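Supplementary notes for students who missed Thursday's class. We covered one full example, reproduced here. Read the sequence, then the structure, then the short commentary at the end.
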Amino acid sequence: MAREAAGPSEARDAAGPSQAPRSRRDGRLQPDARQPAPDPEEEQQRVRELDLKVARRMFWWGFALLPGLWLLVWVHFRQAVKQPGSDPRLRLFVHRSLVGAACSGVLLACWVALVQSNWREWEDRWQWLMVVAPPPKETDW
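Structure (token representation):
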């Protein structure tokens, strides 16, 4: 069964919605004149809402033993928070993420110091916590 050749409108429909029709002017592709250009103020508002949504989700996922996300939120959004007119809710999540990253960093440093200083006294009972456990007694070669 041979299929007949599709017309230009059918080919455009088959391309899908992501392929918006464009008009050719001066050899360059131009956006279709039927679609209005997005308002810059509306676009900025949409970006702000998306930033807030991402910061909020990454903050809450940081509690799922992923404290690196808190540091990532602070690094990524710290410049956006310093700008005048930034969303106070975004500022709140960025500040909380910085506090969470600092607290988890202190806890990790304390844990490493505790393990490094006391692992010999733990005997076999706590050795399972260590990835590589050295021999219990040092021997000369």
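Commentary. The beta strands are 22-25, 28-31. The mean pLDDT is 79. If anything here is unclear, bring it to office hours.
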